[in-house]
Structures are given as structure tokens and as C-alpha cells.
Amino acid sequence: MKNTIFILLTLALFASCSSSSDEEYDQEQYSSKIIGKWYLKSETQGEGNVTEYRTTPNPKCPERDFFHLVFNSDGSAFEYDGECDGTTTNYEGYEIFGNVLQMRTSTVATMTSILEMKKDKLIIGQGSFYREFRRK
Fold first, then answer.
1. What separation, in Å, do the N-terminal and C-terminal C-alpha atoms of the chain show?
2. Which of 5, 109, 113, 136 could form a disulfide with 104 if both were Cys (CB 3.0 to 4.6 A apart)?
3. Helix (H) or strand (E) holding 132
4. 24-80 pLDDT tens trace
5. What does the alpha-carbon distance between residue 43 and residue 17 come to, in Å, rounded to a whole number?
């Protein structure tokens, strides 16, 4: 009987635990958890208009990486569009206020909402436009 109860309690414990990659961060954790490299997985605009992005380097220029955002611990960030003749946008800084992400270049500041953030998943956007990023 004791063995049965022990086994049932053990199973209940494992069933109730979620993996750390599924855990969604709360807004207080966003600033520290966003640091690192995020790869664009998909972009959604409007209802059902989803663009999937490649998750392997472009065979025409394998030395180049694909679209990504990098958030540095010093508050700077950059975005690379992933094309062979790609452009990089350097951000002088980024700040997070609650679930709002503000990124600044030398000429403009943009704001977007953090819709979801987990260990390996970041979704940012406004209204019916949003981007989903993944870590590798």
C-alpha cells in the first residue's frame, strides 16, 4: 500500500511539473531574459497571412546568418535582415516598460508590445501584426 501511494505521488509530481522552456516569464523578468540572440521564425500580418522564415543559412551565402535580433546586456541591440546583401539596424538602446519594448536608433524610437516571452520563444507586435522569434 505504501509503495502504491509513493508511486502515485511521484507520478503526480512529474505530471504537474512543466519544463523550463514552457515557462512564461512575467514582466519583471523581461529585461534580463531578453538578452541574447533571437531568430525570426514567422511574421503574421492580418488574419491568417503568415510568412515563415528559413531556419537554416541561405545556401547562396552560407556565411551569412538569417534574420535575427540581438539584445546586449549593455542596453544596445541590432537587427540583421538575413539577406545576402543584408542590412543591419543598430539600436543605440532598448528599454522595457512592463510589456512594452522600446528600441532607439539615432533618429527614431519604436515601441512594440511583448505578447509572450518564454525561455526559447519571443513574440512581439501590435494589433494584427506580430513576429515570433526563437532561440537556437
1. 46
2. 109
3. strand 129-134
4. 787 778 888 999 999 888 889 988 788 887 666 667 776 666 778 899 999 999 888
5. 31
